[in-house]
């Protein structure tokens, strides 16, 4: 019943060109602000992004490090309209993207089988505004068989909705409660065992959680470790790794950014 409600609400919202005041009852806003982002690369903020109807809509994401708003990836056909070319989603890779401040939704995207390389460094979804109660939604993805986020550590507000995706497998080893850092319910609809020929065993993972046998799940405590670069501890205001122990070199900030420095609170004069 709730799956039907989610899909109907989403379809009604998508009838609008963008989310506007008409969808204010669907979007749930945080009562207090939740952080902004910094990183060692030059931050490039993009507003809300709506990718639909045409595969080349992904070009909106070029150079984005932060999406200040939501991202919709919805209603994309197998074939690009107009030029009759099959969409090749493997060419759309956005390693600069680290943060989404509101929510991310995938819905009815045909011919996409995996998102592993699409957002390899997406670290946090803030959930400042939610769709219903959710910051991440994946539904009606008929060709998607793996949902792998290599770097996603935290959904700071809101929860996860995984709807009907007939061949999406290997979700049973994801620790959804650790991913969503606030109380509430995640709605995870698992594919039938007959559709899944393998099960995740989290081989080589430091914990027992993974997105698949190829991608381990990073947890919130992992943000203080970058042993491959010889750094035992990042600064306490970092999230998702760092280049050194300075609050200036965090991949993403836990809380606030002040002149590209991660801080716990904003200065009183700002």
TrEMBL record:
Nucleotide-binding recorded as keyword: yes
SUPFAM superfamilies given in the database record: Growth factor receptor domain, L domain-like
Segments forming domain Receptor L-domain: 63-178
Keyword Transferase applies: yes
GO molecular function: ATP binding; transmembrane receptor protein tyrosine kinase activity
Uppermost EC category: transferase
InterPro entries listed in its UniProt record: Furin-like_Cys-rich_dom, Growth_fac_rcpt_cys_sf, Rcpt_L-dom, Rcpt_L-dom_sf
Catalytic reaction list: L-tyrosyl-[protein] + ATP = O-phospho-L-tyrosyl-[protein] + ADP + H(+)
Compartments where located: Membrane
Keywords: ATP-binding, Glycoprotein, Kinase, Membrane, Nucleotide-binding, Phosphoprotein, Receptor, Signal, Transferase, Transmembrane, Transmembrane helix, Tyrosine-protein kinase
EC number: 2.7.10.1
Membrane protein topology class: Single-pass type I membrane protein
Gene3D superfamilies the record matches: Receptor L-domain
One CC-aspect GO term: membrane
Domain Furin-like cysteine-rich, residue spans: 193-269
Signal peptide: 1-23
Protein name: receptor protein-tyrosine kinase
Annotated source species: Glossina palpalis gambiensis
